[in-house]
Amino acid sequence: MRFDFYVRTKEDLIEAVEAFGIVPYFANSLPGFSLEEHCHPAALWSDTGECSWDWKGPVIRETNCAYGKFFEKKAVYVSREWFLDLANYRRDGYDFDARYDDGLARFDDKELFELIDANAPILSKELRALGGYAYTARSGQKTEGKKGFDASITRLQELGYVVISDFVYSEDKYGNRRGWGVASYSTPEKFMGSDFTDRVYARSPEESYARLLAHLHELLPEAGEKELRRFLK
Q1: How far is CA 80 from the centre of its chain?
Q2: Could you tell me which residues come within 8 angstroms of residue 133 by beta carbon, excluding any fewer than 6 positions away?
Q3: What is the CATH number of domain 94-200?
Q4: Is 231 helix (H, G, I), strand (E, B) or coil?
Q5: Among 67, 82, 90, 103, which is least packed by CB within 10 angstroms?
Q6: DSSP states of 44-109
């Protein structure tokens, strides 16, 4: 199935995620492989109405897909089925504790992962406050605290241990939505439940990698082997 679609509505995006399994949000190293390049300009971004930026939470909820910075440090929608292979390949057979015990994970990533695992789902701003990380308050004032949150949360997503499970908006006293949606983080185990935990390690990491590579070849038949492998890395 070639990666070919055009998004004008939320329903179009949901259909694309379910049909293709992997839908990067932004343009990346693989030309044409993103929502950004297959979206009507008014649907990609709008100051006056709902657009793809507003659909992130609803798409996650309605498809139960994984969303996060899984490739090239950029956000990607990945269907539940394909996320099983992605997480299995990236984890390389390790749960997080085993990865840390074998010296393959940083202590600061372990601290953040344990906070998410114990409190999931948890909003980004609450997670930063709970972990003592520096963050920008609603007033715009920057608080003091630990640095490195963005780097750690990205690594945890890339390795398949953390996903964004929703986006939550604040409301004014009249119930009107305001500001940007705030990411809510979870682990795939907490977000997807037994459907994930019972199946994520069913294949070898090598088998999952081969399946992902073959799927990308199907979506992007004109892309070179080297480019696809670099994207999956």
Answers
A1: 12
A2: 127, 145, 146, 147, 148, 149
A3: 1.10.10
A4: helix
A5: 103
A6: H--SSS--HHHHHHHHHHHHT-EEEEEETTEEEEE-HHHHHHHHHHHHTT--HHHHHHTT-S-HHH
Rounded Cα–Cα distance for residues 69 and 155 (Å): 8
Closest CA to 53 of 165, 181, 171, 185: 181
Report which of 83, 148, 156 is spatially closest to residue 114, judged by C-alpha positions. 156
Contact between residue 2 and residue 37 where contact means Cβ atoms under 8 Å apart: no
Q: Cα(54)–Cα(46) distance, rounded to whole angstroms?
A: 10
Burial class, 52, CB count within 10 angstroms (exposed 0-12 / middle 13-18 / buried 19+): buried
DSSP three-state, residue 208: helix
Q: pLDDT tens across 4-63, in order?
A: 999 999 999 999 999 999 999 999 999 999 999 999 999 999 887 789 999 999 999 999
Place of tokens 């292979």: 85
- Of 54, 56, 50, 81, whose CA–CA distance to 68 is shortest? 56
Q: Provide the pLDDT for residue 178.
A: 65
Q: Fill in the DSSP letter of residue 133.
A: B
Give the amino acid at 146. Answer: K
Report domain extents, the chain: 1-80+204-233, 94-200
- C-alpha distances out from residue 196 to 81, 87, 192, 226, Å: 9, 10, 6, 30
Tokens matching residue 73: 């440090």
